[in-house]
Amino acid sequence: MTLMPAERIRNVKKSATRLLFDRAYPGSINLGLGEPDFPTPEIVRRAAISFIEEGRIGYTTNAGLPELRQRIAAYHNEGSGSRFTPDSVCITNGAEEALFVVIMALAGPGDDILLPNPAYIAYPAIAEIAGTTATYYHMPAERGFSFDRESFSQGVTERTKLVVLVSPSNPTSRVIAREDLQFIAECLEGSEIYVVADEIYRELYIDARPSSISDFYDKAIIISGLSKMMSMTGWRLGWAIGHEEVIRHVTLMHQYASTCASAVSQRAGIAAFTDEGRKATAEMREELRRRRDVMARAIDRELKLPYVSGEGAFYIMLDVSRFGASDDVAMRLLEERVITVPGSAFGSEADGYLRLSFSIDASLIEEGIRRIAKGILRTT
Ligand code: PLP
Predict the structure, then answer these.
(1) Integer Cα distance of 67 and 135 in angstroms
(2) What's the pTM value of the predicted model, to 2 decimals?
């Protein structure tokens, strides 16, 4: 019997990260992780427990609890007025669902979606499922994966319906500078093009909090959530925030995808916006900075290879181009019991690089880099 899926998912590939994880030996050091290893802050866990103990855990409204939407709107208004209201917010099951329902609600067959190369793997897949055509602007490796104005403006055409920005970026950790965001807004001004701005890593910056495109462009829909900033990946709590009218369409799509985000996670999420919750994020940020330095020093000492270390998130892009294709290198390194993610998983621009995550304990980072050095020296 041949069981064929629908046309729309026939060409969608399984994530390269998953394939590697499936082949890894037990006891491997995981520098491939896309999540912080910190416990979720206590105040958030306590809020969930006391809500569960109250006993009644029903549906919430489709867009989410008004109190949480209020907190989210206030968070995005910080430092930039009072543009967002609770009706500007649709709370979803993680940022992943937010980007899925936003793209599905706003673009379809005949539309182009302009994506960064390299980009977080979900984007090309969702563009395909939505029946759109993915086109790319390049964040060139030879310029340290920084935003390239020329490539961006060449990428915008009359077929472009939606533009995706990911800042800080997964996989490169690079941030799009304020002046470049202004440039993007100027490029798109007067058009009907929506910007989907993925800001899931915004609170995990190294020196300065990244600017948001929503300060310059009003057809921007921001995707964010608590997964990274509160170490809450398993709670599945994210959101889309933007113009109220657009969010109504997004909420309709979300209603038929999942009704509402988990009520327990939403109640817990309210506690994340307290002073104590924000303090927990600041502490994680501090620790991640320290781990970034540990990884950079270990690379300088053990590997002496070029790398790109961005202004946010928790990834370093290691240049392994002289050792072959990045997926072969990553595969060979599994033998040394160290997991990395090949840059090729994120697009042609990052081939020749490995994405290394410094979201794990400093001693494991040091040992992981030693294993990479051993693996690379052994195979050359
Ligand atoms: N956007 C980016 C850039 C990510 O890296 C991730 C997760 O790795 C997501 C969105 C999804 O986040 P969530 O766990 O909230 O669904």
Answers:
(1) 38
(2) 0.96
